[in-house]
TrEMBL record:
InterPro entries: HTH-GbsR_regulator, HTH_MarR-typ, MJ1563, WH-like_DNA-bd_sf, WH_DNA-bd_sf. It comes from the Bacteria. Belongs to the GbsR family. Keywords: DNA-binding, Transcription, Transcription regulation. Residues 22-81 form the HTH marR-type domain. It comes from Candidimonas nitroreducens. One of its GO terms (molecular function) is DNA-binding transcription factor activity. This is HTH-type transcriptional regulator.
Length: 179
């Protein structure tokens, strides 16, 4: 597979962003390539296109499968494994948020709940426990809200998101009127 200049910039950028999102550069670039490909790719094609070793590609694919962002497909008459990304960008967003929640939010909730089971022994600990309670309530409220939003069809979710920018404009205009 030969990448055009636009696709190459996209792949390189996803590599840079990968490290900010909790995966390494190689995994980010592999995902970007598989995402852009109109057909499933095998590991050799990915390796050749990106100039990565076959073992790096295998590790990267395994990581992407653990995130549920790519899945394996087979082709008739070919024993190699091929990989493709989810096609629907809303589904990709949903899966990413679910995986981030499972890996980052849920352990934090468990920790906060456990901390609140302990009795404070002095005023400083009581204050800290109150702050932890506030943080727990915020995270629980946010995750409950997201659970509800996640059930919406993509069209409704998109409308809701667009409504947010319109509300901001109205609130900004109302704020200017008050001044």
């Amino acid at each position: 597979m030969i990448l055009g200049p636009q696709a190459e910039r996209f792949v390189l950028h996803f590599g840079e962003m990968g490290s900010r999102w909790g995966v390494n550069r190689t995994v980010g670039q592999i995902y970007a390539l598989v995402f852009l490909s109109p057909r499933p790719l095998n590991a050799d094609e990915i390796s050749e296109t990106l100039g990565f070793s076959r073992s790096n590609v295998s590790v990267g694919i395994h990581e992407l499968q653990s995130w549920r962002l790519v899945h394996m497909v087979h082709q008739i008459g070919d024993r190699r494994e091929y990989f493709e990304s989810l096609k629907d960008v809303w589904e990709i967003f949903r899966v990413l948020v679910e995986e981030k929640r499972k890996r980052e939010i849920d352990p934090t909730l468990t920790l906060l709940r456990g901390l609140l089971l302990e009795q404070p022994s002095n005023a400083d600990e009581a204050y800290a426990q109150q702050r932890i309670t506030e943080m727990l309530e915020l995270i629980e409220l946010s995750t409950a809200w997201f659970d509800e939003v996640q059930r919406l069809p993509p069209e409704t979710l998109e409308s809701l998101m667009r409504l947010g920018s319109k509300v901001q404009k109205v609130l900004g205009f109302a704020g200017k009127l008050r001044k």
